[in-house]
Write a structure and sequence with these properties.
This protein is mostly helical. It has eight helices and no strands. The longest helix is centred in the middle third of the chain and has 33 residues. Keywords: Membrane, Transmembrane, Transmembrane helix.
């Protein structure tokens, strides 16, 4: 069985709860919440691969599936960002386009097209997987800042509403996500991540032990910010669920 830390396990449990709540929320509430909720649910699916690897599931031997998990992670933040943009427009105009079914089918189509793309190309090696992960983390870091600004603008529009505090919760979520994914991207940029260490071992090289304090601090920020993001997402959706019933 592969190693899995206590922080990883607790983080996955909270993302599972957050994923279930957000998906239920997307089904049971107005169309304006669909993209936001679905985006958070997709995060859980992308994080599920950590547990699958820890349990040595047979399909984890196929690197295509690891690539798909990274791609689903990228899709999740894009769907979520689109959702917050929709909500901002709705908060100003009270108009929203499309249907829930259209959103579900569009996201399913994008995921299916990504799966086809991965399988029609050569099997990704460790270096390719790491490149895909870097793209995912870069997208997350940038769009987390975009979403923070969107949440601020939405809160300014609905500050007198009963659900305004829910968007303060989303602000906390994106601060935590920015730190979580930003710390991982920082490690990747400086080749301090576990994937780079594995690549160097396969090539017969070694990773220098310089700046270990910064590396360890970044790992700590990554672990606990990821944990906070899962807890804050679950808490925010529970709060909103109670208000909108």
């Amino acid at each position: 069985m592969a190693d899995i830390t206590t922080v990883d396990l607790v983080q996955i449990i909270f993302w599972f709860l957050a994923g279930c709540i957000s998906f239920y929320f997307s089904i049971g509430n107005a169309r304006v919440w669909t993209s936001i909720s679905l985006g958070f649910f997709l995060i859980f699916l992308s994080q599920l691969y950590v547990v699958e690897k820890a349990l040595d599931m047979p399909w984890t031997a196929y690197t295509q599936l690891e690539a798909i998990h990274y791609i689903i992670g990228t899709i999740s933040i894009m769907v979520m960002t689109h959702g917050f943009q929709e909500y901002y427009i709705f908060s100003r105009t009270l108009e929203i386009g499309g249907t829930k079914t259209a959103v579900y089918l569009t996201v399913l189509g994008v995921v299916a097209a990504s799966v086809v793309f991965v399988f029609i190309n050569p099997e990704p090696q460790y270096t390719v997987l790491r490149n895909i992960s870097v793209i995912e983390n870069t997208t997350w870091v940038f769009l987390s800042l975009v979403n923070l600004d969107m949440v601020r603008k939405i809160y300014a529009q609905i500050r007198d509403s009963v659900i305004a505090k829910g968007f303060i919760g989303f602000g906390i979520v994106f601060i935590a996500i920015f730190l979580w994914k930003g710390a991982e991207l920082y490690l990747q940029v400086y080749n301090w991540d576990a994937d780079w260490k594995l690549i160097m071992q396969n090539l017969g090289g070694v990773v220098p032990d310089q700046y270990m304090g910064r590396r360890d601090f970044s790992l700590m920020v990554h672990d606990y910010a990821g944990l906070l993001s899962g807890v804050s997402v679950g808490g925010t959706f529970i709060y909103l669920l109670k208000l909108l019933r």
